[in-house]
Amino acid sequence: MPKSQLFHFPLLLFTIVVAFAAISNAAAATPVALQFKEAPQFYNSPDCALVVDKDGESGSDGEPSILCSDRALHVAMTLDTAYIRGTLAAILSVLQHSSCPQNIAFHFVASATANASLLRATVSSSFPYLNFHVYPFDDTFVSRLISTSIRSALDCPLNYARSYLADLLPSCVHRVVYLDSDLVLVDDIAKLAATQLGDNSVLAAPEYCNANFTSYFTPSFWSNPSLSLTFANRKACYFNTGVMVIDLDRWREGDYTTKIEEWMELQKRMRIYELGSLPPFLLVFAGNIAPVDHRWNQHGLGGDNFRGLCRDLHRGPVSLLHWSGKGKPWARLDANRPCSLDALWAPYDLLQWQTLLALDS
After folding, report:
1. 5-7 and 183-185 as β-strands: parallel, antiparallel, unpaired?
2. d(CA 258, CA 277)
């Protein structure tokens, strides 16, 4: 059990109009009025370090100083209307299981064309005490580099924002935990953030060396005499980019954003992979990352990229549940076709269900 003290107070409602994307083969994003509950406030345990003074000292730009503190735990996520329900659930899970929830700073990346005020208000309504900032992501350039993949959702420019965190976040943020929006934690995120990167690794993530690594690239890639040598001196294994610990200083020093873009540019000229933003990460980092215990990314709970069928957990302990794949727990629950593991996501859902039922009636 976390050491944080939980203060209960009546749940307040705040109505937010968002674009809620019903995930189905034919459905498009439909604007509906959703109500999200205000989450309870979580407090630090007595042995947590003091990150911001008791007077709430702020930085020069008016933001809480925790957003630039070396003693804070920094979390980065993308933020959009289609996945806002999943994002709020993920935030709640992080705070609920943290021993020092007040020491966590959230850095949200949203498309520059999105309604940032609406997104900010949505987060603030459920978490009025949260330390966070929303960074606009100009996806004009990366949009020109994106090639169509096996699932249209993977082609969203915001899906590539994780490659630009070192540029988007201020230079005072040296290390960050990146999380997708379709997951929940059931353990203290501080344990994940404390992962040692060693002397040279830029990022850490759970590796899956039993996966068929060759399947992530096309026959054209493997038959090319030059490209096929890309992993010659590495023990390359698959890793999921939805959960990563990243040293932003090392990323900036190595200009890894440019390295990823170079592979994307090659992909536009010669199709070497089929799966969105993942393969460029594998091409640059596979075989050179610091390992993380598999418990920190029980991924694939959303099924495959075509049908999103139900899947079981991998063997072993669980600290993080990740619904990567086509099927999302909120969509399956709304459709009354949930998988058994979707019940583990439901307790973190802040949607006011009476509103959803009223809309359906």
Report:
1. unpaired
2. 14
Region of residue 276 (left: phi > 0; alpha: psi -120 to 50; beta: else): left
Q: What is the DSSP letter of 11?
A: P
DSSP 263: H
User: What is the phi-psi region of residue 284: left when phi exceeds 0, alpha when psi lies from -120 to 50, beta otherwise?
Assistant: alpha
Phi/psi at 331 (5° precision): -70, -40
Q: Token pair of 270, please?
A: 């010669």
Residue 74: strand, helix, or coil: strand
> Rounded to whole angstroms, how far apart are CA atoms 87 and 242?
13
pLDDT tens by residue, the chain, 361 residues: 554 444 333 334 444 444 343 333 333 343 445 789 999 999 999 999 988 644 444 444 455 689 999 999 999 999 999 999 999 999 999 999 999 999 999 999 999 999 999 999 999 999 999 999 999 999 888 888 887 765 565 678 899 999 999 999 999 999 999 999 999 999 999 999 999 999 999 999 999 998 899 999 999 999 999 999 999 999 999 999 999 999 999 999 999 999 999 999 999 999 999 878 899 999 999 999 999 999 999 999 998 766 668 888 888 999 999 999 889 999 999 999 999 999 999 999 999 875 555 555 4
Structure-token pair, residue 36:
């999200």
Token readout for 279 is 């393969």
In this structure, the dihedral spanned by the alpha carbons of residues 196, 198, 202 and 206, taken in order and rounded to 10 degrees, is: -50
Tokens 């990150």, residue located? 51
HSE (side-chain half, CA atoms, 13 Å) at 25: 3
Q: Is 134 exposed, middle or buried (0-12, 13-18, 19+ CB in 10 A)?
A: middle
User: Alpha-carbon distance 305 to 334, whole Å?
Assistant: 20
CB 252 within 8 A of CB 168: no
Which residues share a beta bridge with 5?
A: 43
